[in-house]
Amino acid sequence: MEHSASIATDPVHDNHGGTKEIWRTFWILLGLTIVELILGYIMIGVESAGGRLGLKGAIIILMLAKAFYIVAYFMHLKGEIRNLVMTILVPLSLLIWAIIAFLYEGDSYRNNRNTYDAYTRERSEIPSSDKKADEKGAHEKKRTGTETME
Does the keyword Electron transport apply (predicted)? Predict the structure, then answer.
């Protein structure tokens, strides 16, 4: 009784169509990235606010297109069923919404903090009961904390 191992010469997994699709996705992502970079360099020279806003909008649209391709191909969601895709995309969209909301709220806090000084406003609007204290600093310019020291 002789035992011999036979080696299968036929490839088990022969998928030539997958590499073509990967290269196509690579070229699409590369093209979108190059267009984004070109728009970014163009934006440096644009002086008008409307032009800059339009270029930023175009870059955001291109970024979303790249995100779609990355999610579809590299996370393998292109061929999945709809419920699985929604299980991933809905939390992702909520995460993006939360990031935008936190950035907007943080910017609002920063702007309000820089324009409102409660201590100075209270001191300047509340009349003092001590007349000597009011007369003592009457000849000096009032300091609010927002001007620079000379």
Answer: no
Give the phi and the psi of residue 126 in degrees, each rounded to 5: -90, 120
Q: Could you read off the pLDDT of 30-75 as tens digits, one per residue?
A: 999 999 999 999 999 889 989 999 999 999 999 988 988 888 887 7
CA–CA separation, 135 and 114 (whole Å): 30
Burial class (CB in 10 A: 0-12, 13-18, 19+), 79: exposed
The pTM for the full model equals: 0.49
**Alpha carbons 80 and 98: distance in angstroms, whole number:** 26
Both tokens assigned to 2: 């002789």
